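thought: fold this chain, then report.
action: predict
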Amino acid sequence: MLGVIDLGDLTVESAEIVASRIRAGLKYVAPENLIPAPDCGMKYLPRDVAFGKLKALARARRLCGAS
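observation:
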C-alpha cells in the first residue's frame, strides 16, 4: 500500500496530483503490487472532505490506467 492521499490537510487534492504520487510509486513497485491508499485513517476528516479525497483517488487510478 502506498499512501497517496494527505489526510493531514483538509484540501482535496486533484486527481492529477494523486496520479503523480501513484506514478512516483510505480518507479519502485510493479503495478500489480501497488495499492494506492490514503496515508492513514479518515476518521477525523469531515465527511465531504473524505469523500472528495476518495473521489480524487478513484479518478487518479483511472488516469494511471489502473482499474
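thought: worth noting. Strands lie at 2-5, 36-38.
final: C-alpha cells above.
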